[in-house]
Design brief:
By secondary structure, the chain is mostly beta strands. The protein contains 1 helix and 9 strands, in the order αβββββββββ.
C-alpha cells in the first residue's frame, strides 16, 4: 500500500509544471537597485503635477527612469531601457506624454500607465516597473 501511494505521489509531483514567469526572452535588463527621491517643486519635475505628463530621470536603473502621471496625483515609474532589446544607445526610451518609444529601427512603443507594448503583439516583455511612494510633494522611487 505504501508503494502504491508513493507511486501516486511521485507521478503527481512529476506532472506539476513550474510556476515560473521567467521568460527567457526577457533577460536584457539587469536587476539594479533604485532608491531616488524626487521633489515635485523642482524643475523639470513640476511637469508631473499636471495630468498626462512624463519626465525622464537619467543615471538610475538600466537606462534611467521615466516617471509618469495620469491625474497629477498618481505616479508610475518605469525603467527607461527597452526590455525587448539588448542594451545599446538606441534602446533608451524617450517619453512623450503617457507613451515612450525606443530609438531603434523598430521603434517599440509602450504605455506609461501599465507598461505594455502598444500595437505590437509580438513583443513579449513589458517595461520594468518601480515602486512609487508619495509624501507631500516628494516621490520616493525604489524597488
Amino acid at each position: 500500500m505504501k508503494t502504491f501511494f508513493s507511486l501516486i505521489l511521485f507521478t503527481f509531483l512529476l506532472s506539476c509544471s513550474g510556476n515560473s514567469n521567467d521568460d527567457r526572452n526577457c533577460r536584457f535588463l539587469l536587476d539594479i537597485g533604485v532608491n531616488r527621491q524626487i521633489d515635485l517643486n523642482l524643475f523639470p519635475f513640476t511637469e508631473l503635477l499636471f495630468p498626462g505628463n512624463s519626465v525622464y530621470v537619467p543615471n538610475e536603473g538600466n537606462a534611467g527612469i521615466i516617471i509618469s502621471t495620469t491625474t497629477g496625483k498618481d505616479f508610475y515609474a518605469w525603467d527607461a531601457a527597452d526590455p525587448n532589446h539588448q542594451q545599446s544607445s538606441c534602446s533608451v526610451l524617450a517619453p512623450e506624454g503617457l507613451f515612450a518609444t525606443c530609438g531603434c529601427e523598430d521603434a517599440n512603443k509602450y504605455e506609461l500607465v501599465n507598461g505594455t507594448a502598444v500595437g505590437q503583439n509580438d513583443l513579449r516583455c513589458a517595461l520594468r516597473n518601480y515602486r512609487v511612494q508619495q509624501t507631500g510633494n516628494t516621490l520616493l522611487i525604489f524597488n
